[in-house]
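Action item from last week, closing it out:
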Amino acid sequence: MISKVEIRAALDGSWLLLRNRPEGMAFFDQSVQGFWRSFSVIFLLLPVYVVSCLAEKRLFFAENLYHPDAFPNGSYWFAQFLGMGIDWLALPLLLALLAAPLGISHRYVPFIVVRNWTSLLASVPYIFTYVLFLLDIISPGIVVLLSLTCLVVVIWYRYQVARIVLQTTVSLTIGVVVLDVLLTLVISQAVGFLWGA
C-alpha cells in the first residue's frame, strides 16, 4: 500500500517539475520496486475518474443525447473502468518495446515512475472543473471550455516532465507526449464504441 509520506513526496516532486525544477526528480522512488509501486497510483485516481464519468453522463443528459431512464449504466461503467485500466498500461507497455530503438532504455524506468505519479497533480484542474459542474456552479458550455483548457495545460506539463526525465531531443520528447495523447484518444473512442456512445 502506498504511504502518505510517499504520496506527499511525489506531490512535492510533481510541483517542482511543474515549475521546471529538475531537482523534483529526487522526490520519486526510481528503483525497480518504485517502478512497480507507481502503478498503484491508479487507485488514488479512481475518485477523480468516477467524478469525471459522472460529469460526462450529466453532459449527455444536458445535451439531450440520452434520457436518464434509458442510459446504459451497466455497459457505460464497465467500458469506462476497462478503458481506464488499458489507458494506464498502454504507454508503459508500448514504450517498453520502443525504448531500445529510441535510445531511452536507461531513462525508461524513471520516466514511467514520474509519469504515473505526476498524474495525481495533473488531475487536480479536472476534478475542480467537474465538481463545479456537478454542483451546478458552471454550465455545460463552460465545463467543456475548461476541460479543453485543462487538456492543453496537462499536455504542456507532460512535455515538461518528459523533457526533464528523458533528457532527449525536443522532437523525441514531443513524439513521446503525442504518443501518450493519441493512445488516450484512441482508447477513449474505443470505450465509447464499446458502451454505445
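Closing note: The chain is about 80% helix and 0% strand.
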